[in-house]
Design a protein that fits this description.
About 40% of the residues lie in helices and about 20% in strands. The protein has 9 helices and 8 strands. The chain is globular. About 45% of the residues are buried.
Length: about 250
């Protein structure tokens, strides 16, 4: 990671730049470094980019759910003293961003989601019966991307360590159940927040039809595709991702 982790109060986060705040929400297995290209790019474009560490494995089990994380995000925004923010979320992070926007619409100026759960996903919390088999976990990590080489040894090692930690595995399964329970199909049509949907055409975790459904259900949304791209567009095609997001923010006046 190219940025130092700050620890203040109950929060750990990285931040860079000055201007309109963009809060980035990582996924279940996603490290903060997954967004290095986003923070490096947008922190030089008039934005203050902040990536908090979500308490996915430190929340009590009873609070390990999408709603609790959405409330945690609200508390973090208040802690930072922001009136309104732009939210960017990948996978579970997108779901948390959507749920937060449902609860606290006035705090969210705009929303960007990529590979978001909230309607459907195929991998979260599943398929860990052979979690002690490194090669099985490696293959699972590679399937997240269109290009398996993006799943570096460092990424595979991190996933392997997570699923072989009993506490983390229990929390992972709890979050998976919560994501299904907090399906947002009925909420989305009521959400007027401008939303940018950036999706990999080859996403196996949240397939392309999920992006189309988000676009159909969200009243004020724009959908953009990235070709030869899996579940984490900001990692696999960082330049294209940043360009799409910057043009959309500019076109919307953010």
């Amino acid at each position: 990671m190219t940025h130092r982790l700050k620890k203040e109060g109950n929060y750990s986060y990285i931040e860079a730049g000055e201007g309109t705040p963009i809060i980035v929400l990582h996924g279940l297995m996603g490290g903060l470094s997954n967004f290095d290209s986003v923070i490096n790019f947008f922190s030089t474009k008039g934005y203050q980019v902040i990536i908090p560490e979500l308490p996915i494995y430190t929340m009590s089990l009873i609070k390990t759910n999408v709603k609790s994380f959405a409330n945690y995000l609200y508390d973090f925004i208040e802690f930072k003293g922001f009136d309104q923010v732009i939210l960017l979320g990948n996978s579970l992070g997108g779901h948390i961003g959507l749920y937060h926007t449902k609860l606290y619409a006035k705090k969210v100026k705009a929303l960007i989601i990529t590979g978001s759960s909230g309607l459907y996903e195929s991998a979260m919390g599943g398929g860990y019966t052979k979690r002690s088999d490194y090669e099985v976990i490696k293959k699972k990590a590679q399937e997240v991307f269109y290009d398996p080489e993006v799943a570096t040894k460092e990424i595979v090692d991190e996933v392997y360590a997570t699923v072989n930690d009993r506490n983390k595995l229990v929390k992972t399964l709890a979050i998976a159940k919560s994501a299904i329970r907090h399906n947002m199909a009925k909420d989305l049509p009521k959400m007027q927040t401008p939303t940018c949907i950036i999706w990999g055409k080859n996403d196996n975790v949240t397939p392309p039809e999920v992006a189309e459904e988000f676009h159909e259900l969200l009243p004020d949304s724009d959908l953009f595709w990235i070709d030869k791209c899996g579940h984490a567009a900001m990692m696999e095609h960082p330049d294209e991702f940043n360009t799409i997001m910057e043009k959309w923010l500019s076109a919307r006046g953010f």
